[in-house]
Task: structure prediction
Amino acid sequence: MTTPRDPVARPVRLLIVDDDPLVRAGLTFMLGGVDDITVVGEGADGSEVADLVDRHRPDVVLMDIRMPTMDGLTATEALRGRPDAPEVVVLTTFHADEQVLRAIRAGAAGFVLKDTPPAQIVDSVRRVAAGDPVLSPAVTRQLMARAAGGADGRRPAERARQRIASLAEREREVAVAVGRGRSNAEIAATLYLSVATVKAHVSRILARFGFNNRVQIALLVHDAGLLDEEGDATGDVG
Result:
């Protein structure tokens, strides 16, 4: 499990995994020209990811979802289960594909669309390397709606409420704020805490539930019904 970290001082080491050679070439050309990002390797299938990560030690993996031998979801689940795993951003052509939700539950830090403007892809890589998940407000609402329905249409509220109830009061307040899309600085200002204290609370929540990132906290809070009770989650998650 990883926890949010401060922005890296050295260039972000990026691994690009996509079965389309033209997509890989375009991303490598675009991202390789950015001063604070270094493309350390490329892969054409999820089955290559483990070896590539061992060889190149990336900070972030930009991972396509649909690949022929091992898809990006399976590769993400395997990768994020490893100690000191790099962050993963999935590449997709859909705004709220159910596969994106599965990737986020597996520990991906977010996703970018393949037609996203270059500057936003660069910003996404930087943010994820700094520990901030990448989801727009609209996409967050769509993903949470899918999570709320679940595979059988029933909301997994009871288990989520039990988990939230196990938190200390301040941790619960921080968790709800994360669910509402607030940044650490915004949470600190609202709850009259230091940013360092907010980060510590977030890290403890992640550790308690074995989560990989803040998006999973947001989904838990939503499943528990706390956003319904206390207001709409309209902010960005990050």
Summary: The chain has two domains: 12-134, 155-230. Strands lie at 12-17, 37-43, 60-64, 87-92, 110-113. The longest strand covers residues 37-43. The CA atoms of residues 110 and 135 lie 6 Å apart.
